[in-house]
Amino acid sequence: xxxxxxxxxxxxxxxxxxxxxxxxxxxxxxxxxxxxxxxxxxxxxxxxxxxxxxxxxxxxxxxxxxxxxxxxxxxxxxxxxxxxxxxxxxxxxxxxxxxxxxxxxxxxxxxxxxxxxxxxxxxxxxxxxxxxxxxxxxxxxxxxxxxxxxxxxxxxxxxxxxxxxxxxxxxxxxxxxxxxxxxxxxxxxxxxxxxxxxxxxxxxxxxxxxxxxxxxxxxxxxxxxxxx
Length: 228
Known about the structure:
mainly alpha, 6% strand, 4 strands, single chain
């Protein structure tokens, strides 16, 4: 079923995905031309593009990924494959084409989580560098604020996900029905997945805890990055 969701989401939620793509395009262009001699836009313009990608790109990516849990506005009718004139089995059902995902608080929360995670990892990476002068100290201080936002929003998202209902199918009848705490049940039943998840959480908290205690600043990026 995943390729069907994938193709329908990319085709139907067009504006959400094209906004993400645009952010990554201007990032690549900025790295290429920011310091080139004679560029007519100037370095500051490209630095603004990089800021837009770092902030908006990561946020929108989180919003898009959250739709894997919250769902998308499309319908599936597999019988339509027999219609020779229009053999389309999945269709998007509104004209917002993905922008409606921004109206769902659940999606927005994961957007903040991904943004805060990316910023935290970026700051921790800069803390591994020895040739950036006083900027390294600024990065070390900014990790405190950004990592707290990351952890708080991540915990809130996980709790929301574990407590929300999902859809399950009766293998005997093929009937799909709503199941309370569906994702929590999935974690319990597929215990290797739960174990990997918990190991990741422990690594993130370990790396951030070491940073707060001022230990191993050159290694914490790799610990948190591995957990993430």
